[in-house]
Amino acid sequence: DQQVKQNSPSLSVQEGRISILNCDYTNSMFDYFLWYKKYPAEGPTFLISISSIKDKNEDGRFTVFLNKSAKHLSLHIVPSQPGDSAVYFCAASRYDDKIIFGKGTRLHILP
Amino acid sequence: NAGVTQTPKFQVLKTGQSMTLQCAQDMNHNSMYWYRQDPGMGLRLIYYSASEGTTDKGEVPNGYNVSRLNKREFSLRLESAAPSQTSVYFCASSGRGLNTEAFFGQGTRLTVV
User: Fold this and answer.
1) Neighboring chain B residues of A91 at a CB cutoff of 8 Å
2) Is B96 a residue whose pLDDT tops 80?
3) How confident is the model at residue B98 (pLDDT cuts 50, 70, 90)?
4) B86-100 as b/e, with b when 16 or more CB fall inside 10 Å?
5) Are A47 and A87 in contact (CB under 8 A)?
């Protein structure tokens, strides 16, 4: 039973445009949500997070939006750059509990 | 800054062989994790340790055992390797409390033939 779902295995976006990656979760007890970026042959690296008490968190080109009623979050990257091509994982956790990851979305930034 | 260190980086095993994947972190984190990554399956949690001396099963624990030797080290053991355990294994650690992210090692690519 997947608690964190990323339904788009891949996404292609033109360089300079906005990339929107989506994530849904089923466990209403989750209160902390994270996005990770992964390049081939490397470990995942933390990108941005959001607490359930917020609905938006911004860090430079990256913004995460949380819609608790819909159990949905999204990561916006503006503008998209070639170095953003990677696999993006959505993750969620409860306070002081383990972190559960989705299956990932492979983002291709097209020149 | 070492962060999370995994050894070995690559390993080939024959079916039925055993091995231990080592992980150590130098960030004084309480929580440590073992995940496996397979194509199309994302990062699946094998085992989790919230603190020294405690371990909990994750989504896919069958065929694995773990030891939280001390606060720094969390090892993953395959007692009798199977081809289905061919995967990339990642160790991670995180602090406790509100809003703490996990830091990952570079991974161990394991092939079981």
Assistant:
1) 43, 102
2) no
3) low
4) bbbbbbbbbbeeeeb
5) no
Q: What's the pLDDT score for residue A95?
A: 81
Q: Does residue B48 surpass a pLDDT of 80?
A: yes
Residues 6 or more apart whose CB falls under 8 angstroms from that of B10 comprise B108, B109, B110
Please judge whether A44 and B104 are an interchain contact, meaning their C-beta atoms are less than 8 angstroms apart: yes
Confidence (pLDDT) at B1: 63
CB-based contacts of B101: which residues, under 8 Å, 6+ apart?
Answer: A34, A46, A49, B94
First-to-last alpha carbon distance for chain A, in angstroms, is: 38
List CB contacts (< 8 A) between B35 and chain A.
101
β-bridge pairing A4-5 and A99-101:
unpaired
Report CA Rg, chain B.
Answer: 13
CA distances from A105 to A36, A71, A82, B43 (A): 11, 18, 16, 12
Give A44 to chain B, closest Cα distance, Å: 6
Question: Chain A: nearest CA to B49, how far in angstroms?
Answer: 9
Residue window 8-67, chain B: list those with CB within 8 Å of chain A: 31, 33, 35, 40-45, 48, 50, 56, 58-59
Question: Does residue B96 sit at the A interface (CB-CB below 8 Å)?
Answer: yes
**pLDDT value for B95:** 86
